[in-house]
Amino acid sequence: MSLLKIVFMSINFALIDLVTGGKHCTASNHHLSCVYDVADGQPLAVEKGDIRTLDLSGTSITDLERDYISDYANVVEINLSNCGIRSVGNGSFSDLYKLIKLNLSDNLMTTFNVDSFRDVNPLNVLVLSNNLLISLDSFSLDKFPKLDTLDLTEKSVGTEIDPYHQLRQENIISTLEEVSKHKEHL
Q1: Model confidence over 57-93: pLDDT tens digits?
Q2: Do residues 178 and 186 lie in contact, with contact meaning Cβ atoms separated by under 8 Å?
Q3: Which distant-in-sequence residues (6+ apart) come within 8 Å of 117 by Cβ?
Q4: Which stretches of the chain drop beneath a pLDDT of 50?
Q5: CATH architecture entry for 48-185
Q6: Residue 131's Cα: distance from chain center in Å?
Q7: Closest C-alpha among 165, 114, 113, 107 to residue 131
Q8: Do 104 and 82 form a contact (C-beta atoms < 8 A)?
Q9: Are 130 and 106 spatial neighbours (Cβ–Cβ below 8 Å)?
Q10: Domain with CATH 3.80.10.10 in the chain
Q11: What does the pLDDT read at residue 128?
Q12: 50 vs 158: CA distance, rounded Å
C-alpha cells in the first residue's frame, strides 16, 4: 500500500478530522494535510460536505451570518471559540442538520440568538462560557430536545447582570438536570 501525504497551504480556516473514502485529513495553522492511498486511483478532492469537524477558533469573525458556514452540511462539531463574535445571525446553523457540538466560548456575545437554529435540532453540547451574556430570555429547551450539556461557566469580567439569572427564573437548569436523569434511565 503506497500512501501519499499532501500538504495544502493557504487555507482560510482549520479543518480537523476529515475522513472520507480512505482519505484522512488534518489541519493546523492554516495548513490542510491529507493522507490517502494512491493505489485506489481516486484523486484527492476535499468538498465542504466531507468535513465532519470544523475548527475556526481564533479567527476574526465579528458577526456570524448564515452563508458563512451553511455549506458544511455534514459537520457534527464546530469550534468557534475566541473569534470575537458579537452576534450570530438568524439561521446561521439552520442548515447543519447533523451538528451535535457547538463551542461559542470566549467570544463577545451579550445575547444568545435561538433563531440561529432551525426549530428542532440534534445539538447535544452547547458551550457559551466566557461570553458577555446578559440574559437568555429567548432560550427554550423545546428547540434543543437532545441537549445534554449547556456550559455557561466563567462569567466575563464587566458583566453586570448574572447570566444565570434568567435560567434560574425559568428553572431551565433544573430541567436540564431532570432531562439528564431521565436519559440515564432509558
Answers
A1: 888 899 999 888 888 888 999 999 999 999 999 999 9
A2: no
A3: 93, 94, 123, 143, 144
A4: 1-20, 156-163, 165-166, 168-171
A5: Alpha-Beta Horseshoe (3.80)
A6: 15
A7: 107
A8: no
A9: yes
A10: 48-185
A11: 93
A12: 41
